[in-house]
Amino acid sequence: MATAECLPELFDRTAERFPDAVAVTGKSGSLTYAELRTRAESLAHRIREEIPGTGSRIGIRLSRDIFVPVAVLAVLKSGNAYVPLDPEYPEERVRFMAEDAEVRALVSDRPAGPGTPAVPHLPVAGPDAADRPAGAAPLPAVAPGDPAYVIYTSGSTGRPKGVAVAHESVLALLDGCAGVFDIDEHDVWTLFHSYCFDFSVWEMWGAFAHGSRLVVVDADVAASPERTVRLLADEGVTVLNQVPSVFRTLARVARDTAPPAPPVRHVIFGGEPLAPHGMRNWREAFGPGTVFHNMYGITETTVFVTAHRVPEHAIDGDATLPIGLPLKGYDTVVVDEDDKPVPPGGQGELLVSGTAVALGYLNRPELTAERFVELALPEREPARYYRSGDIALLRHDGLLEHLGRRDNQVKLHGYRIETGEIETVLATADGVQEVAVVVGTTTAGHQVLVAFYVADENLDRTLRSTAFGKLPLHMVPVGYRRLDALPLSPSGKTDRTALERMPV
């Protein structure tokens, strides 16, 4: 991987090495690295015609196709930061994110609707999409510390929070992973996840940093394990990024249907605790040719923090796997309640420092000051740390284990979800007196969001409608249950453990 100071420079160096290699494939066709660069620069010039200067935020609202990386690269080349606005999100949430981020233009493939911001709309495809505007000035230089994107995550107050991440943080991620994976221009990656999910940052730039081909997976295909398995074989995918719960279904389908074997060399897990049985099913279907990696990461620390290559003997076990060791360039420390590092065998909150730590929360100075802190820890240079809110165990062998959360934030299907945000939304429904949202387990063993509420009558349909109208799909509870009262712990707080044990 070539060194660079910003993401456009990194891409250009790759495009100069492999101009005729296919960079991206999707339902609309494919683009070589040279073609992708040309289209992105054309769009970058059009952005600058509408929005002179640099440092603005530009919304991207596109279906999953080859034009997503075109738009991402164009915004970055124009000297601005992109804000992903998933077209499948409710209009109200899109409107909030666009207004909160103060997006000044929108790259879109759909007509304006009630939730789209009243800013210039720029098409990403069309007959003139590859034409550079006449007399266009050179594109601006981009500094390492400039924001590259703002991705919104769940907020406990009902207000999503935008995480601003710099170019240098993404480059630090790529550098940190360089010694973990043997990736080159012959590999084929998938952009499997929504570009509103930070896994997509790794998927795009992990491919582009090495001259690999990126296959953009249509949302309908990604939702179908059968179609996904076929796509992996048809496209010759070698690097697959997955949330463990999604992979378990994928591996079970593969085991039961015996499809053509894809040439997957690396499966990279993130977003949830990893248990072995999905990997065993994959082995049973396709043999031992795939290496599995358990990664831990946070949007606020640019996708990944630690890595653990799963040993063969662990695949045959039943224990949840460790999250491993910090990537090169990252520093992790487990601290007690007084911010003192715990000894081996101890547990506490996991703090993360390094260039990959994000710039902070957009328009949230108090929250930024609370979570991004300057600390002078024993035997360490003073540094800026991110308080993850995750509880970790520092094993005697130096490996880290993830033990859960300090707060009510949960991780489900790869997303970090503040259940308080869902509760705030549901509490707006008429007739709801109290509400609590937890992760429950179905009789089939699947983890799902469940809303327990107190009301004088059954409001399941009302609450479901409220959730669908205001929350992204991954935050909409699957189950709803009316109670006469929420159970309380001895301290008088809602007993979430008791709710988690109730049947779904």
UniProtKB/TrEMBL annotation:
GO terms for molecular function: phosphopantetheine binding. Residues 421-493 form the AMP-binding enzyme C-terminal domain. One of its GO terms (biological process) is amino acid activation for nonribosomal peptide biosynthetic process. Pfam families: AMP-binding, AMP-binding_C. InterPro entries: AA_adenyl_dom, AMP-bd_C, AMP-bd_C_sf, AMP-binding, AMP-binding_CS, AMP-dep_synth/lig_dom, ANL_N_sf. GO terms for cellular component: cytosol. Signal peptide: none annotated. It comes from the Bacteria. PROSITE patterns: AMP_BINDING. Residues 11-362 form the AMP-dependent synthetase/ligase domain. This is Amino acid adenylation domain-containing protein.
